[in-house]
Structures are given as structure tokens and as C-alpha cells.
Write a structure and sequence with these properties.
CATH class of the largest domain: Alpha Beta
CATH architecture of the largest domain: 3-Layer(aba) Sandwich
Cofactor: K(+)
Protein name: tRNA modification GTPase MnmE
Order of helices and strands: HEEHEEEEHEHHHHHEHEEHEHEHEHHHHH
Number of domains: 2
Number of strands: 13
Largest sheet: 7 strands, mixed
Strand content: 15-25%
CATH superfamily of the largest domain: P-loop containing nucleotide triphosphate hydrolases
Strand order of the largest sheet: 3-4-5-6-2-1-7
Subunit structure: Homodimer. Heterotetramer of two MnmE and two MnmG subunits.
Bound molecules: guanosine-5'-diphosphate
Family: Belongs to the TRAFAC class TrmE-Era-EngA-EngB-Septin-like GTPase superfamily. TrmE GTPase family.
CATH topology of the largest domain: Rossmann fold
Subcellular location: Cytoplasm
Structural class: alpha/beta
Shape: flat
């Protein structure tokens, strides 16, 4: 999907509210003729004589036939979302009315908008940069408090301004060094290599921090990868089910039947946790289960949080201590969760409380004490860094560009170390600039734009 220049001049129309019956529906028009077209079918005041940001009551008519009583909001270019003339018509929310109104406008010369075309126009007219445009999509799809806050921060430009500032400084150096290329005979130095090194090192620190923030960003957007680990029959599937409140995992009395991973998401206190149910941690001779076990260990290393679950009716302290030791060596935050309080062996609870006072005692089967487990889960996943308003990278495209920026910046540093010629240095700087520019949209291709905006829905 790319747009010809002529298409960019069209007046486009789409339903901005969801399909289906509602109390009201909002139909949005954008383009040079948005107001004049509306004026042709609107009976009420002359819309072309009204001020921007005003709302008017009247009827929409097809010839003599009244389609609906409506409210029309007017936004005169450039003071609108797309920076074009924009009209928003609030109709009654019947799909018949919506279709009739949209058809009427198409008859008059408006064109149905393509997915994301309103946002794309806003981007093309400089309303915001690409990272902010993408945040609009994220915001629409945000389904938890944390992902909503990250998208909102990005849309408001928190991310972009940081990138743009760094880029501006680097552009300055690039042009200075390129200028030197014109004076090769004279052996002048407009750009101090020491200053350049300081800037590149500073840039690298920021870029690396942003790259690191992607882990957190990813977690916010896609959920905290959480592993429930423990021996077969500890109650992992039961716990997952209890947390999900539905029977998604295979619960079985036969040891070792939960061989594969069942992933699911639950929202705890505004944060999405992606639960990964695993085969047991137990050493095993069963070939299939063995694959499961090594995959478990792989998954555990990539998890942000491990719930180590053990069975109070069938376990001893030596075994628990050994497992806890292994987990401590893994370096992933974990919680010690003792399950089956309803049939705990004698004395085990008091022994455990003494030895491991941070143990959480639950009964997954009876759904007991799950609230304190959830509270402890939230405590352990420290999203505070994000809450302080720091920039968090949530977009894989940005992550890719940042990674490539880092590589090119390292090349610049390497070039400085080896005292390479100016043309090589300039090339590496330009490459870094290119990748930084990809993020905010200073550098775009039609394919890239098409790819980004096609993910939007129509009317956005
Ligand atoms: P997994 O192999 O670790 O996934 O364990 P399962 O979730 O399949 O549970 C093994 C058995 O323990 C099943 O029969 C469950 O019903 C039972 N179970 C799980 N949690 C509890 C509990 O809190 N109390 C009791 N009495 N039984 C439980």
C-alpha cells in the first residue's frame, strides 16, 4: 500500500467508531474538500463560514430525503489531527445510517480511507514522527495499564525527542568531517576527533540503554515471561488453571504427563504475565520427557520470573534446598511456592517457615492464598524503572534500528582508534545517522510506511 501524490489530495472518509450498533457513530472526513462536501448535504448553518473547532446541529440529506439528524465538528487545516480540513459527523449509531452517509459522500467525490490513512496523513504532514505514529497503533491495542502508559509516553514523543537530539549532534559532526574532505590538501581539522569520540561514546551509552529497555518494553507489551517450575505432580498445571481460572492446562494424576508448554496470559495488577507451563525439573530417563526438561531449562533462563512450586505432601527439605540452590545459580528472580497446604506432611510447614521464611503457602487445588501469591509476583517484577517515565523501547522495528545504530557507532569508534581516513569515518557516521533516522521516520521507504500503516485499522 503506497499512495500516489494524487491520492494524497483526495478527501477520504471512514467510520471512526467500531462497526455495529451503538448510541452514536462518528464518521470522519479529511482532505481539502472535507468541509465543502459536507456543506453540500448538511442542512443547518453554512459550514464553510464557521470557525474551526466548532460543533453544529443539523440534518444530512440525500436530495430531499433526511438520512439523520447529526452533529458536525469542524477542524480547519492545519489545526486538525491530519493537518488537513477535517469533519467529524456524529450520527445515530445504526449501520444503515452509517452506510447511507458514507455512500452519499462517496457519490459526491470522497474516497473510502485505507487502513491507517488518517494517521499516515498526519505523519506526512509532520504532525508527529513515525515512532509517534506507531504509538497510536500501540495505544489503540494497549490492553493493560503498563502497555497503555508506555504507548502514551511514546506517542507524546518521549522516545522521539531523545533520538532526534542525538541525531542532530551527529549530523553536525558528519557535515564537519565531510567539509574536511573538500580541504584534503590543506590538512585542516574542523571536527575535533576527541570531541567526536566523546559524542559517539555518549550516543552509544544512550543507544545501549534504549536497547536494554527493550527487554522491559517487550515485557510491558507482550507480558512478563513467567515459568512455573517444579517436579511432576507438584501442581503446576493446577496452579496455572487456578490463576487463569480455566482448564487450559492438562491436569493429570500421572507423573510427567505435562510434557509441552502451554502459554497463557493473565493480568495481575495492570501487568500482563505470560505463563509458560513446563515439563518437570526432575531428572528423567523418558526420552520425550528429557526433551521437555532441557527445553524447560532453556525457557527458565529466558524467563523474567520463576515460580518454583513444590508439593507439601510429597517432598523433603533436602530436595527443596537442592532445587533452590540450582535456582539461585540461574540468576532469575524466583518465588518459593509450597503447594497443597490442604494435605501437607506433618511439621513440614513449620520446618519450611523456619528455614525459608519467604515461602508462600498455597493450595492451587482449593484456590487458597492465591492473592498473596499474586501480590508477591508483582513485588518481584520491578516495573518501577518504567514508572519513573524513562523511555522504554517497545517496538521491534526500533529495536532493530537501534541495534544497527550501535554497530555503526562501534565502527565509528573503531575508525577513530585506527585513524582511518575521513571518507571512511564519514561513511560510518552516515550509516549511524541512517539507522537512527529510520526510527523517527526521517529515513523512510514506501515499503516501510506501507508495512507500518497497513497494521492500523480503517478509520485510524
Ligand atoms: P503438575 O504435574 O505439576 O502440572 O501437577 P498437576 O497440576 O497435574 O497436579 C497433580 C495432582 O495434584 C492433580 O491430581 C491435582 O489435582 C493435585 N493437586 C494440585 N494442587 C493441589 C492442592 O492444592 N491440593 C491437593 N490436595 N491436590 C492438588
Amino acid at each position: 500500500m503506497s499512495f500516489s501524490l494524487a491520492e494524497r489530495d483526495d478527501t477520504i472518509i471512514a467510520l471512526a467508531t467500531p462497526q455495529g450498533v451503538g448510541a452514536i457513530a462518528v464518521i470522519r472526513l479529511s482532505g481539502k474538500n472535507a468541509i465543502s462536501l459536507t456543506n453540500q448535504v448538511f442542512h443547518g448553518k453554512n459550514l464553510e463560514k464557521q470557525a474551526s473547532h466548532t460543533i453544529h446541529f443539523g440534518t444530512i440529506r440525500d436530495g430531499d430525503r433526511v438520512i439523520d439528524e447529526v452533529l458536525v465538528s469542524i477542524f480547519i487545516a492545519p489545526k486538525s489531527f491530519t493537518k488537513e480540513n477535517v469533519v467529524e459527523i456524529s450520527t445515530h449509531g445504526s449501520s444503515y445510517i452509517i452506510n447511507q452517509v458514507i455512500r452519499l459522500f462517496i457519490k459526491l467525490g470522497a474516497r473510502p480511507a485505507k487502513p491507517g490513512e488518517f494517521t499516515q496523513r498526519a505523519f506526512l504532514h509532520g504532525q508527529f514522527d513515525l515512532a509517534q505514529a506507531e504509538a497510536v497503533a500501540d495505544l489503540i491495542h494497549a490492553d493493560s495499564e503498563a502497555s497503555h502508559a508506555a504507548a502514551l509516553n511514546q506517542m507524546r514523543g518521549g522516545f522521539s525527542s531523545e533520538i532526534q537530539e542525538l541525531r542532530a549532534q551527529l549530523i553536525h559532526f558528519a557535515s564537519m568531517i565531510e567539509l574536511e574532505l573538500d580541504f584534503t590538501e590543506e590538512d585542516v581539522e574542523f571536527a575535533s576527533r576527541d570531541d567526536l569520540r566523546v559524542l559517539v561514546e555518549r550516543l552509544l551509552r544512550v543507544v545501549e540503554e534504549l536497547i536494554l529497555s527493550f527487554d522491559l518494553g517487550n515485557v510491558i507489551k507482550n507480558g512478563v515471561p513467567t515459568v512455573i517450575a517444579g517436579k511432576p505432580n507438584a501442581g503446576k498445571s493446577t496452579l496455572l488453571n487456578a490463576l487463569l481460572n480455566e482448564e487450559k492446562a492438562i491436569v493429570s494424576d500421572i507423573a510427567g504427563t505435562t510434557r509441552d508448554f502451554i502459554e497463557d496470559e493473565i493480568n495481575i495488577g495492570g501487568v500482563i504475565f505470560r505463563f509458560i507451563d513446563t515439563a518437570g525439573l526432575r531428572e528423567t530417563t523418558d526420552a520425550i520427557e528429557k526433551i521437555g526438561v532441557s527445553r524447560t531449562q532453556e525457557k527458565m533462563k529466558t524467563a523474567s520470573l520463576i515460580l518454583y512450586l513444590f508439593d507439601l505432601s510429597d517432598t523433603d527439605l533436602i530436595e527443596i534446598n537442592r532445587d533452590i540452590n540450582k535456582l539461585e545459580n540461574l540468576g532469575v528472580p524466583f518465588l518459593k511456592v509450597a503447594n497443597k497446604t490442604d494435605k501437607a506432611k506433618e511439621n513440614i510447614i513449620s520446618e519450611l517457615t523456619e528455614k525459608h521464611p519467604d515461602t508462600i503457602f498455597i493450595s492451587a487445588g482449593k484456590k487458597e492464598n492465591l492473592d498473596s501469591l499474586k501480590a508477591r509476583i508483582l513485588e518481584l517484577v520491578n516495573l518501577d524503572k518504567f514508572k519513573t517515565g524513562n523511555t522504554v523501547v517497545t517496538n521491534i522495528r526500533h529495536y532493530d534500528s537501534l541495534t544497527k545504530t550501535r554497530e555503526s557507532l562501534l565502527d565509528v569508534l573503531g575508525g577513530l582508534d585506527q585513524e582511518v581516513t575521513n571518507d571512511f569515518l564519514a561513511m560510518d557516521i552516515r550509516r549511524s545517522l541512517h539507522f537512527l533516522g529510520e526510527i523517527t521516520g526521517e529515513i523512510t521507504t514506501d515499503d516501510l510506511l506501507a508495512n507500518i500503516f497497513s497494521k492500523f485499522c480503517i478509520g485510524k
